[in-house]
């Protein structure tokens, strides 16, 4: 089943504070969408994600963090606990959303869309762990998928390229 006729901006998501919204407010922005976790060996990626956001937000980059507890139960907290953890430990100021599933039967439609619409050769397959990163251009097209272990800093060149377009 292809979700390619969907528009990334139409997906409903819940903010970290519980409000329902869509991604419409990010139209025209370059997006870096990431499934996150607070108790993972890769949790320090928050620091690099925040650095990218701080550096490029004024040029149109928005990092969107989606907490997920599907991988070894590494995000067991409530949304309030997750928000506090991210702000206290990593000074996260980019948008965070409510906890979701990112793979399997109950995967959020947004993440199914991201996986199914990442073009070859940049599609790395199903979401294998916390901190898989998807880069989306200003027009809502999924450009690349990066594996969980890809350090945020490694995305800088791709981000700069998209921001210049």
From TrEMBL:
SUPFAM superfamilies: Thioredoxin-like (SSF52833). Residues 2-164 form the Thioredoxin domain. Gene3D superfamilies: Glutaredoxin. It comes from the Bacteria. Keywords: Oxidoreductase, Peroxidase. PROSITE patterns: GLUTATHIONE_PEROXID_1 (PS00460), GLUTATHIONE_PEROXID_2 (PS00763), GLUTATHIONE_PEROXID_3 (PS51355), THIOREDOXIN_2 (PS51352). The keyword Cell division does not apply. It holds the Pfam family GSHPx. GO terms for molecular function: peroxidase activity. InterPro entries: Glutathione_peroxidase, GPX_AS, GPX_CS, Thioredoxin-like_sf, Thioredoxin_domain. The keyword Lipid biosynthesis does not apply. Belongs to the glutathione peroxidase family. This is Glutathione peroxidase.
